[in-house]
Structures are given as structure tokens and as C-alpha cells.
User: Which sequence fits this backbone?
């Protein structure tokens, strides 16, 4: 299933170099960075390098094109129909049409290296994905730069944007019709050099996975810049030493994330949107770094599941209804083999016919139980949009525990091990015997339901205590129980 693709970099190995932060961009919020009046640099020789974890796939804005970076009218770097494209200048577009980049669970490294002093036109623009050069190019009506020493639309004095296109009046403002949705990390622009991908990353000798390396030794040139997004109060800060800082547009400290190429966190999987009715397409909307799910199908159950599955270990995440419109919801988990059938069997986390459990709540009356209903707390413990639900999954011993605002229901004790005190036993065939996926679900009952999830790398709900697990990973409202960890690749390497 698409939830568990294995072929791309997932930040799942120790690298010797850690990237601590990324920044989340959301097309619906008009979130981008810009430089209004940059100084001109080398328009003929330059390199861009960035890591991206895409969260909005296909068409998520009015144009159908998501810009990663743009400058003036003709400097363009973007995803369209999930293919990556680069515009050198007007008439010189190169686009890789061999690979659709549609894995919302993986970090992708992109390098675009330009040098029009090269005698061969195909060497004037080189595009690499995870260290490998793409050689099959669709020119989209254009071509490689056809003249030696040709000047580009890049490193000019024109308006420069990250996260959208500068397509406002006279190309001097961001254009919300071209915004991107995703996380960006280690954004580098090198003025005056056509660098190789090995200047930014390397293949791990054991796994063969492409991984980042320290870029602090790169000479970025006078008009280059390096954004590591480490300063939450100044996410456009240039760390190259040039002072080529960007200004934030609708980006705040809360948009900083710890989901990075060296520690990849679970999010909701936009490729696995289940609607509990045979033959009905789930049109629920995933936003905010794929941590927010909004219903879009009145009269049906809909759900969202994790991008990372669990087969062993002990794990913790949090979720909550967004507002009073979320009348009926469940928070729990699903079985990987079973989840793909949820859309056929009217299932959701805790449905009687699925290998799963869910803690049911919302603003409607009569809830506050673990479903299937034979496991309801006594008395019932209701919750709504004012509460945060914690889920502690012990896949080693086969139990799940739920907390409301830090207090475990059923007098649950996640540290009780094999006795499972107050926990719910994972049904045979899941957990220790299969792959389990954290999940949320809701019923669309005349008002639009919204759920928020926090796996620790980024969340849209307000965190006041900033608790982490024992390894220091994740940002939660309530501390994970002893021995439980955030669902991220560094922890999976150690405990998964």
C-alpha cells in the first residue's frame, strides 16, 4: 500500500549530521518567504539545493502548480502534476517527466546546478533527485539554454520568493494561486558555482540511502543564501554569512517543525483517505503539514491514517477535535491489511468489523467510550474540542491506552507491561503480528468536522508545555509515558 513505500529517503538512518528544523508551508494560508530587492549575482552559474517533504499532491491551488522558489517573471522551480520543473528563462524550461514525486512520507533532495559556460547544452542545466541525475527531460515547449554564456532569469534584482511565485503586479509580490504545501529544510542557493549533489549529501555506505551532510563549508558567493530555519523568531534568516535574509509572509514561529531529513516524523497520509461507503470517494482535505483533516462528504464516515506503521515498540501521539462542528469522532489505530477495506465496509477506527479500536468522542452527547462499545470506560469519559487525547500503543505486549488531558481512562497504566492494566488488548493479527497504523476518524453530520493530530514533528494545535519523549524527540502537550516514544525514524531505528 502507498502508506509504506520503501524506495525513497526517509531520514531513517544515523547520518553523523543532524538537521534540527524545517518550516511548514501551506497553500491555503498564503505562507511564503520573500526578498523584495535582492542584489544581482551570477546569472550564468549557480546551484540550488533543498530538501522537501511534499504534503499537498496534485492540484491544491488555483493554478495547479506549486512553486518552491521563483524570481521575477521567468525564474521558476515548481511541481506540476507532481512532476518537477525548472525554468532557466523565457523559452528554456526543463522538466523531468519520468518520476512523479508523490510520497508524503518521504523527504526528497533536489539539486539544480547551472553553468552556461559549458560547451554541451545538456551540461548547462543538471537536475538531481536524491543524488541521482535525471536524464530524461521534457522541455515543455522550451529547451536547454542554447547559447554559451547565456544569462538566466535567476540572481537578478527581481522579486524573489520561496513557497510561491512572484506573480503579483509587475511580478513584485507573491501570488497565492501558486503556493506550495509541504516542509522545506536546508535551502541553499550558491552564487557562482555549478556544484555536484555530493556537496550537499552522500549515499550511506551500509543502506545506500541518500543523506544530508554539513553544508557550512560551502562558499555561497556574495548573493547566495542558506536557510536552515533554526531561529523560530526569524525563519527567513540567512546563515550563509551574506545577510541575504528573507521576510516572512504569514509565516510565524509556530510554523517551525522538527520533522526533518535526519529525523522524519509520521504525519497523516494524504494517499490513504478512506470513506466508509462502497464506491464513494473520500474528498476529505489534508492540510497544515498533513496534521489537519477536514471532512468534505456529508453523511459518511471518513478517516486519516499515519504515514508510518508500527510492528513493535511503544509509541505515543495526540489528537483532538478542532471545533464544535466535530460531533462524532474516534481516535485510535487501524490494521494495515484492514485499512484498505475501510472504504468498502463502512469502517473507521473502532468499527466492529475492523481490527481496530478507537476512543469515541466529540460534541454530540452519549459518547466517551472505547469502541467497539464492549470496552467503554465506566463511567463514560467524554471529550470535545477543548480536550487533548493521548494514545499510548504498546505493540510489544499488545495493548493500547488512551488519556484525556494527561489522565488515562479506565485507570490505565501504560507501564504495566504484559498485564495491560486499564489498556485494551490489540486483536489477534494486529500489532505484534502485523502492521498497525495510528488513525483518526469522524462522521460528517451536517456540519464540517475537523480533526487535528500531533505525532510530535509538527501540529496545528497550540502546545503550552512542549513535552518530549525520553530521547528529546517530539513536541507534545503531555509527556509520553515512561518507555513510550514519538513516532519518528530516529526512534524507529532504536525501538521499532
Assistant:
Amino acid at each position: 500500500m502507498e502508506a509504506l513505500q520503501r524506495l525513497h529517503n526517509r531520514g531513517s538512518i544515523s547520518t553523523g549530521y543532524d538537521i534540527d528544523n524545517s518550516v511548514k508551508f501551506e497553500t491555503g494560508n498564503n505562507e511564503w518567504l520573500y526578498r523584495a530587492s535582492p542584489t544581482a549575482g551570477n546569472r550564468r552559474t549557480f546551484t540550488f539545493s533543498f530538501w522537501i517533504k511534499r504534503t499537498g499532491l496534485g492540484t491544491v491551488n488555483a493554478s495547479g502548480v506549486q512553486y518552491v522558489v521563483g524570481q521575477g517573471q521567468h525564474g521558476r522551480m515548481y511541481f506540476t502534476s507532481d512532476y518537477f520543473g525548472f525554468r532557466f528563462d523565457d523559452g528554456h524550461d526543463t522538466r523531468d517527466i519520468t518520476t512523479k514525486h508523490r510520497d508524503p512520507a518521504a523527504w526528497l533532495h533536489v539539486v539544480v546546478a547551472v553553468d552556461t559556460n559549458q560547451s554541451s547544452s545538456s551540461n548547462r542545466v543538471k537536475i538531481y533527485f536524491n543524488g541521482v541525475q535525471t536524464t530524461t527531460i521534457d522541455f515543455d515547449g522550451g529547451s536547454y539554454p542554447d547559447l554559451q554564456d547565456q544569462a538566466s532569469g535567476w540572481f537578478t534584482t527581481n522579486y524573489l520568493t520561496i513557497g510561491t511565485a512572484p506573480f503579483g503586479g509587475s511580478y513584485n509580490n507573491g501570488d497565492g494561486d501558486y503556493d506550495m504545501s509541504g516542509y522545506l529544510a536546508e535551502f541553499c542557493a550558491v552564487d557562482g558555482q555549478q556544484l555536484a549533489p555530493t556537496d550537499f549529501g552522500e549515499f550511506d555506505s551500509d543502506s545506500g540511502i541518500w543523506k544530508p551532510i554539513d553544508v557550512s563549508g560551502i562558499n555561497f558567493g556574495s548573493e547566495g543564501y542558506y536557510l536552515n530555519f533554526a531561529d523560530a523568531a526569524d525563519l527567513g534568516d540567512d546563515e550563509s554569512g551574506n545577510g541575504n535574509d528573507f521576510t516572512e509572509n504569514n509565516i510565524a514561529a509556530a510554523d517551525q517543525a522538527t520533522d526533518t531529513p535526519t529525523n522524519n516524523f509520521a504525519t497523516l497520509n494524504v494517499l490513504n483517505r478512506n470513506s466508509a461507503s462502497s464506491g464513494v470517494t473520500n474528498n476529505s482535505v489534508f492540510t497544515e503539514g498533513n496534521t489537519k483533516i477536514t471532512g468534505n462528504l456529508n453523511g459518511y464516515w471518513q478517516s486519516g491514517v499515519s504515514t508510518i506503521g508500527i510492528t513493535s515498540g511503544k509509541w505515543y501521539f495526540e489528537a483532538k477535535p478542532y471545533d464544535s462542528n466535530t460531533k462524532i469522532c474516534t481516535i485510535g489505530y487501524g490494521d494495515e491489511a484492514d485499512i484498505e477495506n475501510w472504504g468498502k465496509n463502512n469502517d473507521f477506527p473502532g468499527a466492529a468489523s475492523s481490527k481496530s479500536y478507537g476512543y469515541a468522542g466529540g460534541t454530540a452527547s452519549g459518547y466517551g467510550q472505547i469502541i467497539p462499545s464492549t470496552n467503554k470506560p465506566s463511567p463514560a469519559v467524554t471529550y470535545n474540542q477543548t480536550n487533548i487525547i493521548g494514545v499510548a500503543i504498546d505493540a510489544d505486549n499488545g495493548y493500547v491506552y488512551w488519556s484525556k488531558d494527561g489522565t488515562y481512562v479506565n485507570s490505565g497504566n501504560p507501564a504495566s507491561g504484559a498485564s495491560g492494566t486499564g489498556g485494551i488488548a490489540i486483536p489477534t493479527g494486529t500489532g505484534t503480528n502485523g502492521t498497525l497504523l495510528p488513525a483518526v476518524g469522524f462522521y460528517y453530520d451536517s456540519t464540517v468536522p475537523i480533526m487535528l493530530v500531533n505525532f510530535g514533528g509538527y501540529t496545528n494545535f497550540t502546545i503550552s508545555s512542549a513535552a518530549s519523549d525520553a530521547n528529546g524527540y517530539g513536541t507534545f502537550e503531555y509527556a509520553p509515558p515512561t518507555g513510550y516514544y514519538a513516532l519518528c525514524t530516529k526512534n524507529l531505528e532504536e525501538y521499532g
